[in-house]
């Protein structure tokens, strides 16, 4: 099986299995990234909002210094936070992240959400998150996506991002971007798991040659620790996934990742635990049958766990 997906515009080969950095603690992040590289991970999915880009960069730098990898062997993704969408802020947002990572360029830079909020100086609050300095007020601002995208394209011109893409976007927004993009999005990163299968979005992106990275592959699991799992039955402990896992001699986590990979999607599982991190990377050496794929897809209940409408009613981007 292929271990990378080739992006249309640049021909760059993006690893299909990467490591997600959301909720990787600052204290453990550098060591986790270093050890993940040792185990074979070559893609790291970061974001300004995760607040651990400096530590992740330290892990990369140590791995390069120790000769485990060269810069060009690792794929680093980062994301522009919502408070940097205005045209005069985009470059600043990207440069801040690059400085934290200690990198000259990102392999992939995404617009984190199609939602714009009031700027906050990182010296005052960092990561800025959704809320203002008082920690509770959310202040939306009016920035058209085109304004942000036009600036994101300039990051490619400046050599700061090799590839650019979107995140948390639906078909209608992608359709609009394709009307004006000078540099088309190469990747869409979205929540996608057996409770939220999004078949028509996958079909549309394949038609446009936009690669999809599925996030939160384990569904509710990631949201338990932030009390946002919406009471859903765990996919990792689901009987249906469990019986397919035992039949294949794999764990439920590996089956969930494999289900995404077999649809041509990239995955970025996160783990703060070394054993699970290693286990997640080993999701390529087996094949689910067409029936098993269908059975897993049949679990779909259109359950969206990461929905910004839960932050503010005017952020109903998936309504
Ligand atoms: N673009 C966006 O808006 C967006 C949003 C969400 C996520 N993401 C990206 O996608 C990445 C992955 O998504 P995610 O972090 O939400 O969730 P995830 O990778 O689906 O799940 C992580 C959760 O599963 C547990 N876990 C990991 N491996 C396991 C295994 N083999 N067996 C049992 N439990 C396991 C982890 O616990 P332990 O850590 O204790 O192992 C953690 O609680 C993020 O880290 C981030 O990079 C992007």
Question: Would you spell out the secondary-structure blueprint of this structure?
Answer:
Blueprint lengths: L3 E3 L6 E3 L3 E2 L5 H14 L3 E3 L7 H13 L9 E6 L9 H12 L4 E6 L33 H13 L3 E7 L3 H10 L6 E5 L7 H10 L2 E5 L5 H4 L14 H10 L3 H10 L4 E2 L6 H8 L8 H8 L22
Parallel strand pairs: 3-4, 4-5, 5-6, 6-7, 7-8, 8-9, 9-10
Antiparallel strand pairs: 1-2
Helix pairs in contact: 1-2, 1-10, 2-3, 8-9
NADP nicotinamide-adenine-dinucleotide phosphate (NAP) binds next to α7 and α10.
Explain how this protein is built.
The chain is globular and about 55 Å long. By secondary structure, the chain is an alpha/beta fold. It has helices at 26-39, 53-65, 90-101, 145-157, 171-180, 199-208, 221-224, 239-248, 252-261, 274-281, 290-297; strands at residues 4-6, 13-15, 19-20, 43-45, 75-80, 106-111, 161-167, 187-191, 211-215, 266-267. Helix 1 (26-39) packs parallel to helix 2, helix 2 (53-65) crosses helix 3 and helix 8 packs across helix 9. Strand 3 (19-20), helix 1 and strand 4 form a beta-alpha-beta unit. It has one domain (11-315): TIM Barrel, CATH 3.20.20.100. The model has no long low-confidence stretch (mean pLDDT 97). The chain is built from eleven helices and ten strands. The strands form two sheets. Strands 3-4-5-6-7-8-9-10 form an eight-stranded parallel sheet. A two-stranded antiparallel sheet has the order 1-2. The protein binds NADP nicotinamide-adenine-dinucleotide phosphate (NAP). NADP nicotinamide-adenine-dinucleotide phosphate binds at residues 20-22, 45, 112, 167-168, 189, 215-218, 221-222, 225, 236, 251, 253, 268-273, 276, 279-280, 306.
């Amino acid at each position: 099986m292929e271990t990378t997906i080739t992006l249309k515009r640049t021909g760059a080969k993006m690893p299909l299995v990467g490591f997600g950095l959301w909720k990787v603690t600052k204290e453990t992040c550098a060591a986790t990234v270093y050890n993940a590289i040792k185990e074979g991970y070559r893609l790291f999915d970061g974001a300004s909002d995760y607040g651990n880009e400096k530590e992740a960069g330290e892990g990369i730098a140590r791995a390069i210094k120790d000769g485990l990898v060269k810069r060009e062997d690792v794929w680093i993704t980062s994301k522009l936070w919502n408070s940097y969408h205005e045209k005069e802020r985009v470059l600043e947002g990207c440069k801040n992240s690059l400085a934290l990572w200690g990198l000259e360029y990102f392999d992939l830079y995404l617009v984190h959400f199609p939602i714009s909020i009031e700027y906050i100086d990182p010296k005052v609050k960092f990561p800025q998150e959704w809320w203002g300095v008082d920690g509770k007020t959310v202040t939306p601002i009016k920035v058209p996506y085109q304004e942000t995208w036009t600036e994101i394209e300039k990051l490619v011109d400046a050599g700061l991002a090799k590839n650019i893409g979107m995140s948390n976007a639906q078909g209608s927004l992608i359709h609009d971007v394709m009307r004006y993009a000078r540099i088309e999005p190469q990747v869409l990163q979205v929540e996608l798991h057996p409770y939220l299968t999004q078949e028509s979005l996958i079909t549309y992106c394949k038609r446009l040659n936009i690669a999809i990275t599925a996030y939160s592959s384990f569904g509710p699991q990631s949201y338990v620790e932030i009390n946002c799992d919406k009471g859903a039955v765990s996919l990792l402990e689901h009987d249906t996934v469990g019986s397919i896992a035992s039949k294949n001699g794999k764990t439920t986590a590996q089956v969930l990742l494999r289900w995404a990979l077999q649809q041509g999607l990239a995955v970025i599982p996160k783990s703060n635990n070394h054993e699970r991190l290693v286990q997640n990377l080993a999701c390529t050496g087996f094949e689910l049958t067409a029936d098993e794929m269908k059975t897993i897809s049949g679990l779909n209940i259109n359950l969206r766990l990461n929905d910004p409408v839960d932050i503010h009613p005017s952020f109903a981007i998936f309504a």
